Amino acid sequence: MQQTDQNTLHERKNENGAGNGKAKKAKSHRGLIATLWTVFALGVIGVFFFLFLVYNGVIGYMPPVEELKNPTDRFASVLYSADGKEIGRYFVGTGNRVYADFDEVSPHVIDALISTEDVRFEEHSGIDMRGLGRVLFKTVLMGNKNAGGGSTLTQQLAKQLYSPSSSGFLSRAMQKPIEWMIAVKLERYYSKEEIIKMYLNQFDFLYNAVGIKSAAHVYFGKAPKDLKIEEAATLVGMVKNPSYYNPVRQNERTRQRRNVVLAQMEKAGKITKAELDSLSALPLTLDFNRVDAKDGIAPYFREELRRMLRAHKPERQNYRSWETQKYVDDSIAWETNPLFGWIEKNPKPDGSKYDIYTDGLKIYTTIDTRMQAYAEEAVAEHLGGYLQPAFFREKRGTRGAPYTSDRAELSEIRRNHLIRNAMKNTDRYRTMVKAGASREEIDRAFNTAREMKVFTYHGSVDTVMTPLDSVLYQKMFLRTGFMAMDPLNGHIKAYVGGPDFGYFQYDMVSTGRRQIGSTVKPFLYTYAMEEGFTPCDEFSNTQPVITDESGRVWAPRNAGSARVGEMVNLRWALTNSNNWISARLISQLSPPSLVRTMHNFGITADLPPVMSLCLGPADVSVKEMVTAYSAFANNGMRVDPMFVTAIADNNGNIISEFSPRHTEVISEKAYYRILSMLLNVVNEGTAHRVRSRYGLTAEMGGKTGTTNYNADGWFMGFTPQLVAGTWVGGEERFIHFNTMAYGQGAAMALPIYGRFMKKVYADKSLNYSQSARFDFPAGVDLCEKEFYGYYDEEVDADNNAEDTSMEGVFD
Question: Where is this region: Disordered (predicted)?
Fold first, then answer.
């Protein structure tokens, strides 16, 4: 019994001990759980406190509230033509971004974007907690790489707007929470539509296509509101990785990605299963339009306009010694042209300056895309299809080509000097000099053949040649300048500064100046008409021997032999571009007064007041010549060229408007006399090819011009509705045709005008008519019964053969 009690007592002690152990163990578990919950709570509090600090910018970078409310938007400026087409953009780097409002974007783009990138976009406030949970459990814990990402569209926008590229683990670790907090703030300040709009305006789709508007244009050649479902899905598919899903280089891969987007749209109920099946079967078809400053229509015009907009007030010390004329031109433009230096002259309301690369300006130009296309076609057809092949044939096998082989005109020493200077103007030469290469090393490099791309009128071609040969090959191509303008308001309708902007960027309309030859004679004859001469005044058609102001004897040459020794009137003399009569005329007038006359016509060149000025040795630009000849088409009123009619800000608010600027340069009496003579030049004279070869019946005046050795060919033409001028020649004056068959203005330059006008009149969408006429008042005294003159087509066809003798040259 006692033993039993002892056992019972022992068992009770054991039970009490076990109970105490369990109690202690339970207490320990409760303590651990409490500790874990405490740690978890502290962790949550810590995370929230950390995010609070990030939200308020204490930790990491947080943009100021003002910047979040008004993000810095950088948009390319867009140039529009007079007929409402986009013709180019000004941007730097990857800044080709053009603003698109929400209602300018196809709903298909919005549906595709939300369905693919953020299906709960309408539900969250910047952070998608379900998405983060999916990433944590499926992607991180379970290793499912196809589970999708957790970034919302708002977070992606925050990254685009404010996140710099991260380097290092700590930097990358900080980036996400910062993006989260920025996203939360963005959701606070913007509506869902505004966030979508900002996102689509920010994304870089490659190929200088930043933003949905640029992307729609680059890849599909249309506005974003016109995108089809499959096109919208293609662009949204690129959002995942534009380099990997590049539709230009990886068509099939991008098509498959497009189909994934379409499947997501079907899953989200945005398209039907039938639509998904039919759209997925479509090939991926692009209308690719690469955007580059050198590509597109009117590149010379766009570059000259850029120069004008960004010009600074001219200071002589900023110009080189040989740039005196440029300084003069820029100084005149600064004072008289509101577009020249527009950025400097028109500050923003806050006093800062506009930036044409980032402020998204809308620039409304005067260019007509149809007429510009016709001008570019005319240049390519005449130079590429006719004149350039003839030049190649003439120079083939000629020592020293493309330079003249006439050593009396160009010595071998001078030619070698010109070639050496051409080498020095190349990037290769400058790079080697900067690297410390010797002259022998440079010469060896320029005479070592290598692979390169060269220009042809049929496109760039790959070839192998030495850099020196490539320099000479480039010089083989004839250059040109062509500009057409409305003589009533100065609107420039077409502007071609060279054969190809990608290879020949020197602008021969505004920048280049060449001797004008006989195109100067209308200024001389206008001056004479103002002084009381009439078209029927007669002079002896014999070579004059004139002693100039310095006592030098001047006996100009004449190209033709028609009516030598006879008395001829001024109408006949100008019609046939007779040099002798021009010389006799200036000898009775005053060279300084001729200089003043030409300056009144808008020519800013430094003109020497000498007798020979009447035959055109002055260097003048095509733009100046077109400006001057506008007076002949517009009742004696010269009009300055207008590049732009208006400039608006990114929101479409007009900042500046531009108006025509007219100057009277010819009196009424003198105007009708000179007009009648210039009409006769086309009807009967050196410019008759306009009629005989191009079938143009419009009433038009004009003047051809050719300089010594055929170095420059000119044609100036005008109708009541349009004035145009064209020049053709070599890069240097020593590069030219040997004979007048190809080298005169009627053969080199006039055909570009003829082809252009023929295309313009054939386009019925343009308001140009061959029935337009100049208005001669009743009873005007032109010193003759008729001012048109009789035209014998058979005789004229003989006179205007390839080696026509009617064209004048100057000494």
Answer: 1-24
